[in-house]
Specification:
mainly beta; 24 strands; three-stranded antiparallel beta sheet; 1 helix; 359 residues
Length: 359
């Protein structure tokens, strides 16, 4: 009964939305600037500049150049809803072609492009229907031409399903690895499975690239079905064929066979599973990190595996720096991390080292 309750809880959690009370985009008014660039929007092509709008105290963003675009990957998913309401205010010259484009899953493929008519701060609004299931949408605002295009605001929020009644749903195509699914046909890999995950959401139906254990092996010689590198902050860590024994201490894993140490503890390649000698105890070197004997107690001798400097007698653990998001996935910057609250990505924190060895 306890296992069943945990399973139901995990499944319920995957159905929760990822918006901020229905709001889809961060900084819809282009107010947050980090120097001469927007903090929450990425320049895709051309350049941008802060520009006045219809009100002297309310600045917007001008798309600079004959081919310019900005984008934002929003965490909205089908758990939030499948109807999105847009309101946009812009100043678009007659000799400019301006567009709002939607890239479902944020995989680089534009799935719908809406032309923005020439206007002088005339509000525009419309609804778009998105085919479920989906995880994340990259919104791109672009212009082509020598004239000016200044954006004052783009507001997007989830709407009632009936508000999109009769509209043809935008189909993002088969989901990439790590995406939500209901049946095999939803996935580019053709495999939709109910799988556990290192994320806090636990168990969910995800598109996978191989048959997870204990199913029949689907990987070639020298490979095992395990956890690969995350592809996107709006999707789960993917299941795919990875080299057997190829993961170092501190890396994500699904089974013991993935790890060089042959120990996968809590989805992390580790050195112990409550089997430390003497009075030593097995525990995580950092939150959601690898399990090692006597973490942080300076007990490991030169050449022994370690995850932090504090594991070693010498006070130095040599290895590649490990940075992780709050859900334990590796990251290079906060943009690699899933949204936590306020539509902002979570922290990318230096936690220790990968494949460490005491000096």
């Amino acid at each position: 009964m306890k296992k069943l309750s945990l399973l139901v809880l995990g499944l319920a959690a995957t159905q929760l939305g990822a918006t901020e009370c229905g709001q889809v985009l961060r900084d819809p008014g282009f107010d947050l600037w980090c120097g001469d660039h927007l903090c929450s929007w990425k320049v895709v092509r051309g350049d941008i500049a802060r520009a006045p709008t219809w009100h002297s105290s309310d600045a917007g963003v001008e798309l600079v150049g004959e081919d310019a675009a900005i984008s934002q990957l929003a965490p909205v998913d089908s758990g939030d809803g499948t109807c999105i309401h847009f309101e946009l205010v812009a100043n678009v010259d007659d000799d400019v072609e301006a567009f709002l484009a939607l890239d479902i899953y944020g995989d680089g493929s534009i799935d719908r492009r809406e032309r923005l008519p020439a206007s002088k701060w005339k509000p525009l609004s419309y609804n778009l229907s998105i085919k479920a299931p989906f995880d994340g949408i990259r919104f791109e605002l672009s212009k082509q031409g020598a004239g000016r295009a200044v954006l004052g605001r783009i507001h997007a929020e989830t709407a009632r399903a009936e508000d999109c009644a009769g509209l043809p749903p935008i189909d993002g195509g088969p989901a990439p690895l790590g995406g939500s699914c209901v049946e095999n046909a939803d996935c580019g890999s053709g495999m939709c499975r109910l799988v556990p995950s290192p994320s806090p959401f636990g168990v969910a139906f995800r598109c996978v690239g191989c048959e997870p254990p204990p199913g029949a092996p689907t990987c070639g010689a020298g490979l095992v079905c395990g956890l690969g590198e995350p592809r996107s902050p709006v999707r789960d860590v993917p299941y795919e064929c990875v080299p057997a024994g190829g993961d170092e201490l501190g890396e994500l894993c699904l089974t013991n066979a993935e790890c060089g140490s042959q120990v996968c503890n809590g989805y992390i390649c580790s050195t112990c599973m409550n089997d430390c000698s003497g009075a030593e105890l097995c525990g995580p070197a950092w939150p959601r990190g690898p399990s090692v004997c006597s973490p942080g107690e300076h007990r490991r001798a030169s050449g022994e595996p370690c995850a932090t400097d504090a594991d070693c007698r010498s006070g130095t653990c040599n290895g590649a720096q490990r940075r992780t998001c709050e859900d334990g996935r590796p990251c290079g910057n906060p943009g690699d991390c899933p949204v936590t609250e306020g539509l902002a990505p979570g922290a990318c924190t230096t936690v220790g080292v990968t494949g460490g060895s005491c000096q």
